[in-house]
């Protein structure tokens, strides 16, 4: 983890609402060191029972936009609130130029900024045969090592059944509380390591073959 | 200002530089924080719970935010104590900050074996025996269900500790537990002190999905500032009967909370949920505590320990 800056919220905008959950955009000055698509950790100056995670959406010299999910009882920071921001990932795998990222509208906010790094983003649309499209792009025996799937866990299970030999990476970033890998709330159940791995430290991308998908489904909040 | 605290360790003693400790289950296996802040500023550090077997993360949603705190259901998710001693402990600055481990096991013999392993390590300062043990099955009583059993168990455990590590009992948080009986029973058995609080049972329901939000049984442990008034009351009750140190915990968030628990009679305090509010929580808290005690004119914690008194108008 790396300290990024102390900053202040300039503006807050509700991006989406779904039941009790809200996705909010925070505009803050500074944070020029951040990178689009990166996961950040932020805390407010007042006491809150946990720090929270955000996705860096855009970065310019003057302003950075973060997107964060808030539960119904989260008091979202208001304009003027002081924030401390850390970078929390030392990712085992990074998405770069040439990568193909497959996602749904729900996940899009987490991966859309990766376009800035040269990734191609495919967003599943209603009625689309996503598996057919993937077969067309990659081929039955193609190279899956630059394919990244940001899909709901049940869809990942369906993918694994449809493509038993495929070896893409999957997005397995879960609810977090401490952001340093200590609390175990975001540990991903792995097939080759019973302790699992902290998604806040090494995530969000894990090799599909390593992850226990059934357990991921039960351990994940809806629309992570 | 002297923030140091001395506690018994068998016939000897152990001195901490200040009363602030981490709490088990919220600070990983300590090693995760080595590059976050200088952990040697703390009074002591406590690992996650160890069982006699290798754990794995629970197969359910393990964390949910709720009013004034959170629900957690991490389960038996840690490495073994042997692995910790062999691989992690050598990386910790155990000479500069006392390292405590938290242990659980279904049998007394297993607990004895784990304490012996801690003693043999030569680098573990203390062991807390976690009374919150919901994994043994219905036929295995919790450690605290029977005060006589609790006393007998601590007699065996203190013999294993042999005054070479601090031995604390850690209370479960059940409405059924009478804390005074637990503290007295543990002390009669030879415990050097008692940690007074653990997460309390809690639940939350997602009304859109008509489903419990956290835990494989629908329930989890509730931690956070919401439990502080109950925990503080419990600290007062325990301190009244204790002849050895009580370690306050439960919802402690600010430096003011730390002072409240010491005024209620605690020697040390353990802080868990609040430490997740930000990675640099502990150094900020220690700075706040120093400043607060200076403002209050406190020169040593002995001056204020257990000093809180009842103020009531005299009868007419």
Give the structural class of chain B: alpha/beta
Corresponding CATH superfamily of chain B: Aldolase class I
Report the β-strand fraction of chain A as a percent range: 25-35%
Number of strands of chain B: 16
Number of helices of chain B: 8
As a percent range, the share of strand residues of chain B is: 15-25%
Give the N-to-C terminal Cα separation of chain A.
21 Å
Distance between the termini of chain B: 43 Å
What is the CATH topology assignment of chain B? TIM Barrel
Low-pLDDT stretches of chain A: none
Largest sheet of chain B: 8 strands, parallel
Q: How much helix, percentage-wise, in residues of chain A?
A: 10-25%
Q: What's the CATH class of chain B, please? A: Alpha Beta
Percent range of helical residues of chain B: 25-40%
**Structural class assignment of chain A:** alpha+beta
Identify the strand order in the major beta sheet of chain A. Answer: 1-7-4-5-6-3-2
Which characteristics define this entry?
heterodimer; A: 224 residues; alpha+beta; Elongation Factor Tu (Ef-tu), domain 3; 2 domains; seven-stranded antiparallel β-sheet; five-stranded mixed β-sheet; 5 helices; B: 316 residues; alpha/beta; TIM Barrel; eight-stranded parallel β-sheet; 16 strands; globular
Report what the structure shows.
- The complex is a heterodimer of chains A (224) and B (316).
- With 224 residues, chain A is an alpha+beta fold.
- Chain A folds into 2 domains: 2-87, Translation factors (Elongation Factor Tu (Ef-tu), domain 3), CATH 2.40.30.10; 100-219, no CATH class.
- Helix content of chain A is 15%, strand content 33%.
- Chain A has 5 helices and 14 strands.
- Chain A has helices at 108-111, 130-138, 153-162, 199-202, 213-219, and strands spanning 2-8, 11-18, 21-29, 39-44, 52-59, 63-70, 82-87, 100-103, 120-123, 147-150, 169-171, 187-188, 197-198, 205-207.
- In chain A, strands 1-7-4-5-6-3-2 form a 7-stranded antiparallel β-sheet, with no helix packed on it. Chain A has a 5-stranded mixed β-sheet with strand order 9-8-10-11-14, with no helix packed on it. In chain A, strands 12-13 form a two-stranded antiparallel ribbon.
- In chain A, α3 (153-162) runs antiparallel to α5.
- Chain A is globular, with a radius of gyration of 17 Å.
- Chain B is of the alpha/beta class.
- Chain B has one domain (5-59, 72-200, 223-304): Alpha-Beta Barrel (TIM Barrel), CATH 3.20.20.70.
- Helices cover 29% and strands 20% of the residues of chain B.
- Chain B is built from 8 helices and 16 strands.
- In chain B, the strands form 4 sheets. In chain B, strands 3-16-15-10-9-8-7-4 form an 8-stranded parallel β-sheet, with helices on one face. A 4-stranded antiparallel β-sheet of chain B has the order 5-6-14-11, with no helix packed on it. In chain B, strands 1-2 form a two-stranded antiparallel ribbon.
- The longest helix of chain B is centred in the last third of the chain and has 16 residues, at 281-296.
- The radius of gyration of chain B is 19 Å and the shape is globular.
- Chain B starts with a strand and ends in a 12-residue tail after the last helix.
- The chains are: A alpha+beta (224), B alpha/beta (316).
- The interface between A and B is large, with 41 and 47 residues.
């Amino acid at each position: 983890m790396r300290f990024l800056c102390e900053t202040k919220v300039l503006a807050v905008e509700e991006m989406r609402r779904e039941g009790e959950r809200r996705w909010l955009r925070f505009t803050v000055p500074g944070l020029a060191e951040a990178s689009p698509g990166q996961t950040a950790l932020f805390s407010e100056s007042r006491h809150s029972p946990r720090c929270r995670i955000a996705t860096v959406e855009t970065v310019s010299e003057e302003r950075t936009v973060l997107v964060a999910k808030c539960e119904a009882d989260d008091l979202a920071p208001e304009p003027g609130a002081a924030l401390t921001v850390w970078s929390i990932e030392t990712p085992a795998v990074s998405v770069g130029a040439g990568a193909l990222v497959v996602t749904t509208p729900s996940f899009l906010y987490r991966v859309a900024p990766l376009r800035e790094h040269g990734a191609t983003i495919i967003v599943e649309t209603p009625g689309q045969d996503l598996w057919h499209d993937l077969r067309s792009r990659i081929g039955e025996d193609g190279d899956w090592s630059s394919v990244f799937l940001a899909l709901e866990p049940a869809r990942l299970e369906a993918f694994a059944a449809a493509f038993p030999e495929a070896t893409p990476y999957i997005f397995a970033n879960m609810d977090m509380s401490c952001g340093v890998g200590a609390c175990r709330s975001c540990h991903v159940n792995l097939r080759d390591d019973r302790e699992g791995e902290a998604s806040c430290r090494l995530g969000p991308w894990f090799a599909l073959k390593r992850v226990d998908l059934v357990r991921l489904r039960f351990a994940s909040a809806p629309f992570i | 200002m002297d923030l140091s605290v001395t506690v018994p360790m068998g016939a000897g003693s152990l001195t901490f530089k200040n009363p602030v400790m981490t709490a088990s289950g919220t600070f990983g296996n300590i090693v995760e924080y080595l590059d976050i802040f200088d952990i040697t500023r703390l009074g002591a550090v406590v690992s996650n719970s160890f069982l006699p077997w290798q754990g794995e993360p629970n197969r359910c949603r393990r964390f949910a935010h709720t009013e004034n705190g959170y629900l957690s259901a991490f389960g038996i998710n840690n490495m073994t104590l042997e692995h910790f001693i062999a691989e992690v402990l050598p990386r910790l600055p155990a000479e500069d900050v006392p390292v405590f481990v938290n242990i659980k096991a279904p049998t007394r013999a297993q607990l004895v074996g784990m304490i012996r392993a801690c003693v043999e390590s030569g680098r573990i300062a203390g062991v807390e025996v976690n009374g919150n043990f919901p994994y043994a099955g219905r036929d295995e009583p919790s450690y605290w269900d029977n005060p006589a059993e609790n006393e007998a168990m601590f007699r065996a455990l203190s013999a294993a500790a042999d005054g070479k590590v601090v031995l604390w009992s850690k209370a479960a948080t059940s409405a059924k537990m009478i804390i005074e009986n637990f503290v007295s029973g543990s002390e009669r058995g030879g415990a050097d002190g008692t940690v007074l609080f653990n997460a309390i049972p809690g639940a939350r329901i997602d009304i859109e999905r008509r489903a419990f939000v956290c835990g494989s049984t629908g329930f989890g442990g509730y931690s956070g500032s919401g439990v502080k008034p109950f925990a503080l009351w419990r600290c007062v009750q325990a301190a009244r009967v204790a002849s050895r140190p009580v370690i306050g915990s439960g919802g402690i968030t600010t430096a003011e909370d730390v002072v409240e628990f010491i005024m209620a009679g605690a020697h040390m305090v353990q802080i868990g949920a609040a430490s997740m509010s930000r990675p640099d929580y502990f150094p900020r808290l220690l700075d706040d505590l120093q400043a607060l005690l200076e403002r209050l004119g406190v020169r040593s914690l002995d001056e204020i320990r257990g000093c809180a008194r009842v103020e009531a108008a005299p009868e007419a």
